[in-house]
Amino acid sequence: MRISFNFLEVSVMRVKPFELLTDEGKPFTHVDLYGRYTILFFFPKAGTSGCTREAVEFSRENFEKTQVVGISRDSVESLKRFKEKNNLKVVLLSDPEGELHEFFDVLENGKTVRSTFILDRWGFVRREWRKVKVEGHVQEVKEALDQLLKEDLSLNRHIEWRRARRALKKDRIPRDEVETLIKAAHLAPSCMNNQPWRFVVVDSEDVLKRLHEALPGGNYWMKNAPVLIAVHSKRDFDCVLSDNREYFLFDTGLAVGNLLVQATQMGLVAHPVAGYDPVKVKEILGIPEDHVLITLIAVGYLGDENELSEKHREIERSERVRKDLSEIVRWNL
C-alpha cells in the first residue's frame, strides 16, 4: 500500500481490506486486526507434521495483548478438524483463492512458503519471517513481540528526550532535513482541516543576521542556530466557534509540537521562543501586519554547554521538572 500526500510519498506495508472465513465458518476481516497486535502465520497444509507442531506451539505460548491467526489454503472443514484434533487455541482462516497469500507474497510456484508476520494495532507489518523453520520459531516470535510491545506501549522516547536546549552548533543543516520538519508540522490535525499554520524558514546568513537584531540579550544563544523558523497565522485562517474560541493558535501549536518531536527523532534541537521584537521580525520577513507571529523556533545540532552563560548552563544540566500528574489531570467527576 502506498500513502500519498501532495508533498510526501511514503511506502508502507499495511494489510489490505479482505474477508475470509474462520475454522468456525464465521467472517473475519481486516477490521478484526485493528486495535490488537496480531501474529499472522501462513502454513502449507493442515495436519502435516510441521504445520501441526507450529500451530500447537503457537497455541501453547502466552501472547499477551495479541491474537494469533493461522492462514492456509485449506477448506473451512479441514481447518475445523485440524483445530479440534489438536486442541488449538488460535484463530484459523481459510484462504482457498490465495488472496492474502498473494498480498503477503508467500507463494512460490503455487505453494505456500511458511511465513510469519507481526502486525500492530493499525494493521501495519512490523516484523516478518520467511521460509520459517519450525524449531525455535515460536520463541523467536515471542521475543520479537515482547520487544515491540515494550517499544510501542511505553512513552515515546523522542517526546521524553525532547527539551528546550540552548547549546547549539553553527553547523549547517541540509535543506531536505529542514523540509522534513515542515512536512511533519504540516501533518498536524486542524479544525475542519483548515491548516492555519504558516512558516518562514530562514537559513541565509544575511537574513539570520538581520533577525539577530530583533532578539533580546537573553536569547543570545539563538545566534548560533543555522536555521530560524518563524511561525505565524491569522484568526480568519481557522475556526472561530460560537463561544469565541479561536482555533488558529491551538492548531498551529499542534503543528509546532509535531515539528519538535520530529526534530528530536532526527537528532536536532528545535527550541521555540517567545522573546523577540515581533514588529521587527515581521518587517524583515514580510509577514503581514494582521498576522500573529506566534513563535520563532531555533533549530540546530546539540552544541557545547560551556558556550552558554552560567545561568543557562545550570538549566541545561538540570533534571527536567514537571508538575505531578495529580496537579494537571483528574479522572471522571
TrEMBL record:
GO terms for molecular function: antioxidant activity; oxidoreductase activity. Residues 9-150 form the Thioredoxin domain. It holds the Pfam family Nitroreductase. It comes from the Bacteria. Gene3D superfamilies: Glutaredoxin, NADH Oxidase. This is Nitroreductase. It comes from Thermotoga neapolitana (strain ATCC 49049 / DSM 4359 / NBRC 107923 / NS-E).
